[in-house]
Amino acid sequence: MKKHTKFQKVFFTILPFIAAPLIFLLAKFVAEHKDMLTPCLTYTLFGINCPGCGATRASIALLNADIITSLRQNCMVIIGILVCIWLYVEFLFKIYEKPLPFTIVKQKYIWIFVSFLFIYTILRNIFPALAPF
Asked: Contact 18/12 with Cβ under 8 angstroms?
């Protein structure tokens, strides 16, 4: 395993605290200029909701602290954020060479996630309650 320098460790530790406000500002800009967004290509061509349909509206609802609406639009946004946070924690443990009791960077967890996306896509096209509004 490659040893990381002290600079790299500090940089990767503070990176989310630098990136989060920038992502927040970008998301606010997108929320204010929704008319610039392109429609979902899958929905436009085939008339079915893809796993990402409603993600922009879910993110905007999350920015406004409306968790219920965010979940209603696309629950994968919140799940995706939680997975990204866990992956970041795993990465930090790795660069600081600390043991971590549970890791999701394994093939079986990736297959579980992909299977969940596939099932979610099918269910949200069968049951209108799961489709974005």
From this structure: no
Q: How far is CA 32 from CA 22, 55, 57, 63, 104, in A?
A: 15, 16, 12, 12, 35
- Among candidate residues 125, 114, 101, 112, the one with its CA nearest the CA of residue 47: 125
37: pLDDT confidence band, cut at 50, 70 and 90? confident
Average pLDDT value over all residues in the chain? 88
Contact partners, residue 55, CB within 8 Å, separation at least 6: 73, 74, 76, 77
> Model pTM?
0.79
Q: Hey, what's the torsion of the CAs at 98, 100, 105, 110, to 10 degrees? A: -170
Residue 74 has pLDDT above 90, yes or no: yes
- Tell me the three state secondary structure of residue 102: coil
Residues 82/61, Cβ–Cβ less than 8 Å: no
End-to-end CA distance of the chain: 48
Average pLDDT over residues 50-71: 90
